[in-house]
Structures are given as structure tokens and as C-alpha cells.
Specification:
Blueprint lengths: L6 H4 L16 E2 L11 H11 L11 H11 L6 E4 L1 H13 L6 E4 L5 H8 L4 E4 L18 E5 L11 H9 L6 E4 L20 E6 L12 E4 L2 H12 L8 H12 L1 H24 L3 E2 L6 E5 L5 H10 L2 E2 L11 E5 L3 H17 L2
Parallel strand pairs: 1-11, 3-4, 3-5, 5-6, 6-7
Antiparallel strand pairs: 2-8, 7-8, 9-10, 10-12
Helix pairs in contact: 2-8, 3-8, 4-5, 4-7, 9-11
Bound molecules: 4'-deoxy-4'-aminopyridoxal-5'-phosphate.
């Protein structure tokens, strides 16, 4: 830390992203990316915009918001687009939480929530998940705090039924409930259909997972016009050109080929079923995931050891050191070839440790 760094941020512990190694070619199952490339139309859209980079992007992202509004059945004024959904989450925390309306989220969830809370000096409560790692909706009823729930949750992959989300939203009319649906396209049920019924509901999604665009950085928020206007106040006070022109039109092209991405999500779900079966045959406990990753543990090998042994053999998964989840590894679902390699490698590791 330099001697110029302000006291305001001196105690901030930043988020640690998953490894993006450059030392060798791994079977990369550690950051929940899609194993499938974007559709060819996306590459063509990016190429077309490249020749116009001397011009700023449209600060309103008009074309993209119109397309998102059409796909999700809302008005363009109910949509905000962001530089990855992380940015929308940060804007939402800034806009809707403070000392009078502190944050509440599960103790085991997306690791960026406490970081954004600290960054913005927002007090927060971390509510323990149940023994089976599910969220107890009762904990959030009439809680009187700004609620953030990843649904499906990360890194567990567990999903709350939409009816439970609705009860939480309904019971907290004076606070915003943020539902982070980064992984919803792999078997969850979106809360977007409720945004016209509840002015305190904000749904955040991303193009990083099911739409194969993690490297383009594109996320979006859908809610009431008033909530979106508040987010825009922060966006225009931070970075009006937050979505670059290549990404905006890549997003439009991706939405025009929704069938391709839906098919890919189906493939991921089928590969997920196969991988669960194989891991269970090897004695693993696997949480019932509705996401493009699995959270699994074995009595025969600790999560940290498994992560290290897999990495040494060229397969990268994610391990978290937090005590309650340290026995687990999180495994992104990739292609069948990647999943077969994962299972073969785990078999080798288990045999070698006998
Ligand atoms: N929410 C959750 C639950 C996530 O796991 C992630 C991915 N790390 C994000 C949001 C942010 O993704 P992105 O900024 O790529 O849209």
C-alpha cells in the first residue's frame, strides 16, 4: 500500500477472481465460463463495430436495451445494461443500501457481495445457510434490510422456488430485494416475470454464462422504471459509456440467436446429469445443482487436496478456504470430453491415494 492510499479503503480486502492461468493449457473448469464459443453472428457484429471505434458507444445502449426488453417482456426503461453483472450489483448496492438500510445475504454466496458492501461502507449481515446448504426463506421474511440472493446460489448451485422469492419480496415492501440470476438459464425460474407486480424487486442477469460472453463483460438489471432510473443516476455519475460498442452489438446478435444458447444450456444440463452420476458412483456427495457447476465433496479426499491434485494433472477446478465449504470443490460443467477427462483424472487420483 502506498502512503497515499486513503484511510477510507485501507482495510478493504478485494475480491479474488478465479485463476486465469497462462502457464499451460488446462481443462478449465474453475470460473463457470461456457465451453461453447459465441454464435458466428456475434463475431460478425463485433467486427462491424471495430471499424467505428473512434466514436463513443451509445450511452443509452438503445439497440441492446430494446432487444432485451423484447426478449424479457418489459419496457426498455425497465432495463439497465452494465459492464458485467458485477457492475450492476455494485450500482444496486450503492443505490439501495446504506446504514439505514443495511444488506442481508447468505453466509455462503457470491464472494463479491461483502466486497461491494465494504467498498461502499454498507453494514451487512451474513445469514447462515441451513445444514443442507439451502437458503431458509423464513430468515428473510420482513427482515427490513436490503436483501441480496443469488438464485441459483453460488457456489452451492441450489435454487429457491420462485414462490419463495416472491414471499421474500412481498414481505419487504420498504426495501429492495436484489435477485442475482447469473445462473438462472441452467434450470432455475426467473423472477423477471414479477417485476411489474413489485416495485422493490430488482433482477440482475449476465451474458457471461449461458450466452458465452464472459470476456465481453455484459450484464443487465431489470426492475421497475424508478429503480432503473436510480441505477442510471449512479451509472451517469460513474461511467456513462460503461458498455462499449462492440459488446453492445455482440449482445444484440446473441439475443437474436437465443435458440443456439438455449440448446447449449440443454447440453450443459445433460452433461451435468452425467457428471453427477459419475461422481456419486465414486462416492462423492454432490449438491443438487441448477447451475452450470457442481459443488461436490468426498470423504476420501479433502477439497483442497483434490483441487491441487487435479491441477497438477491439468484439470482446474475451484476450491474455497472458508471452513464450512473447504471439504468441497466447485466444478464448472464443460463439454462431455472435458467431463470425461475430469472423471478419469479423479479416478486416477483416488486410486493413487489408496
Ligand atoms: N453473480 C454471481 C453469483 C456470479 O457467480 C458471478 C460470476 N463470477 C457474477 C454475478 C458476475 O458475473 P459477470 O460480472 O461476469 O456478469
Amino acid at each position: 500500500m502506498s502512503r497515499y492510499f486513503t484511510d477510507k479503503f485501507a482495510s478493504l480486502t478485494p475480491y479474488t477472481p478465479g485463476e486465469q492461468p497462462r502457464d499451460m493449457q488446462y481443462v478449465k473448469l474453475n470460473t463457470n465460463e461456457s465451453p461453447f464459443p459465441p454464435s458466428p453472428a456475434v463475431a460478425a457484429a463485433v467486427a462491424a463495430e471495430c471499424g467505428k471505434l473512434q466514436l463513443y458507444s451509445d450511452p443509452e445502449s438503445t439497440a441492446l436495451r430494446a432487444k432485451l426488453a423484447e426478449v424479457y417482456g418489459v419496457k426498455p426503461t425497465q432495463v439497465l445494461v452494465s459492464n458485467g453483472s458485477d457492475e450492476a450489483l455494485n450500482f444496486a448496492f450503492m443505490a439501495f443500501a446504506d446504514t439505514h438500510s443495511p444488506l442481508a445475504f447468505p453466509d455462503i454466496t457470491y464472494g463479491f457481495y461483502p466486497v461491494f458492501a465494504e467498498l461502499n461502507h454498507i453494514p451487512y449481515t451474513q445469514i447462515p445457510l441451513k445444514e443442507d446448504f439451502s437458503i431458509d426463506p423464513a430468515d428473510y421474511m420482513a427482515i427490513g434490510k436490503t436483501v441480496v440472493i443469488a438464485n441459483p446460489n453460488a457456489p452451492t448451485g441450489l435454487c429457491l422456488p420462485l414462490a419463495e422469492i416472491e414471499k421474500i419480496v412481498k414481505s419487504n415492501p420498504d426495501n429492495v430485494v436484489i435477485v442475482d440470476e447469473a445462473y438462472v438459464d441452467f434450470g432455475g425460474e426467473s423472477a423477471v416475470k414479477l417485476v411489474d407486480s413489485y416495485e422493490n424487486l430488482l433482477v440482475i442477469q449476465t451474458f457471461s454464462k449461458s450466452r458465452s460472453m464472459a470476456g465481453a463483460r455484459l450484464g443487465f438489471a431489470i426492475g421497475s422504471e424508478q429503480l432503473i432510473a436510480d441505477l442510471n443516476t449512479l451509472r451517469y455519475s460513474t461511467n456513462p459509456y460503461n458498455v462499449n460498442r462492440m459488446t453492445e452489438f455482440a449482445g444484440v446478435a446473441a439475443l437474436e440467436e437465443d435458440d443456439y444458447y438455449k440448446q447449449n444450456a440443454q447440453t450443459i444440463m445433460a452433461n451435468r446429469r452425467w457428471t453427477i452420476e459419475q461422481l456419486e458412483r465414486l462416492g462423492f456427495t454432490v449438491l443438487p445443482s441448477k447451475a452450470n457447476f457442481l459443488f461436490a465433496k468426498s470423504d476420501r479426499i479433502h477439497g483442497e487436496k483434490l483441487y491441487k491434485e487435479l491441477k497438477a494433472r491439468g484439470v482446474l477446478v475451484r476450491h474455497f478456504t472458508k471452513e464450512r465449504i473447504a471439504p468441497f470443490v466447485r466444478i464448472t460443467i464443460g463439454t462431455m470430453a472435458q467431463m470425461e477427462k475430469l472423471i478419469e483424472t479423479i479416478k486416477d487420483i483416488l486410486e493413487a491415494s489408496l
